[in-house]
């Protein structure tokens, strides 16, 4: 994976589409480099984004409740 020139700012175009019963596919594209990644399920997409942000996975937390 490419190193980000500005690690405090990340931009991605995320595409999601439904393929049958409970199956979601996705792609993530870096608009600055054109680099694209495809994912067979949402969990892999989220793992990729966490890795890019260097954030460990958190069980069942979708948002911060403050």
Short characterization:
The relative contact order is 0.18. Helix content is 18%, strand content 24%.
Count of extended strands: 3
Helix and strand run: EEEH
Number of helices: 1
* Estimated share of beta-strand residues: 15-25%
Order of strands, widest sheet? 1-2-3
Low-confidence stretches: none
Structural Rg:
13 Å
Mean pLDDT: 82
Main β sheet profile = 3 strands, antiparallel
Distance between the termini: 33 Å
What's the structural blueprint in terms of helices and strands?
Layout: E1 13-18, E2 24-29, E3 36-39, H1 42-53
Antiparallel strand pairs: 1-2, 2-3
Describe the structure.
This protein has 66 residues and is an alpha+beta fold. It has a domain at 13-53. 18% of the residues lie in helices and 24% in strands. It has 1 helix and 3 strands; from the N terminus they run E-E-E-H. It has a 3-stranded antiparallel β-sheet. A hairpin with a 5-residue loop joins strand 1 (13-18) and strand 2 (24-29). The longest helix has 12 residues, at 42-53. The mean pLDDT is 82.
Key terms:
3 strands, three-stranded antiparallel beta sheet, alpha+beta, 66 residues, 1 helix, flat
